[in-house]
Amino acid sequence: MGRQPYLTLGKLTKLAPEELRREWARRYGAPAPALSPELLRLGIGYKLQEAKLGGISRGTRTLLRQVAAPAGKGDKGKPLPRKLTPGTRLVRDWRAVGHTVTVLEDGFEYQGQHWKTLTAVARAITGAHWNGPLFFGLTARKTKL
């Protein structure tokens, strides 16, 4: 068997359906499913990009598993993890005063100071213990049954 030519996304568009099925089997290690040539191209294109740029992160894989997992009877399932992007601003009015918190890579910035948790920021604002994500509206209050 000869050497496989280097496949690019551009060349992928020129492959015939039978060539796509062979390429799928080579890249996925299993026979190609009964999909249209366009869907086969998308799947092979993903594998090409994954080989060049890397696959999805462990965190993303975990999130996808959680979303895909069926919830049990009467079970709302595990809550999805929150991911706040650095640079995001959280705004909350407390007793007629506006408060703005900026999300950092390693915590939060509030009034020029660095804070490790939103709960610590909420305590500084209110003077009482608050769940930080609840205080800033990122989670809903649990209702009692």
Characterize the structure shown:
This protein has 145 residues and is an alpha+beta fold. It is built from six helices and four strands. The protein has two domains: 7-72, no CATH class; 89-135, no CATH class. Strand 1 (89-94) and strand 2 form a beta hairpin. The mean pLDDT is 84.
Low-confidence stretches: none
Taken together, the total number of domains comes to: 2
The helix content is 25-40%
Number of strands: 4
> Averaging pLDDT over every residue, what do you get?
84
Main sheet: strands, sense, barrel:
4 strands, antiparallel
Q: What is the overall silhouette?
A: elongated
Order of helices and strands: HHHHEEEEHH
Radius of gyration: 24 Å
Strand content: 5-15%
Secondary-structure-derived class:
alpha+beta
User: Alpha-carbon distance between the termini?
Assistant: 67 Å
Task: State the strand order across the main sheet.
Answer: 1-2-3-4
Number of helices: 6
Provide keyphrases for this structure:
single chain; 145 residues; alpha+beta; 6 helices; 39% helix; elongated
In short:
The chain is of the alpha+beta class. The chain is 39% helix and 14% strand.
Furnish the topology, listing elements before pairings.
Blueprint: H1 9-12, H2 17-28, H3 37-53, H4 58-68, E1 89-94, E2 97-104, E3 107-110, E4 113-115, H5 118-126, H6 132-135
Antiparallel strand pairs: 1-2, 2-3, 3-4
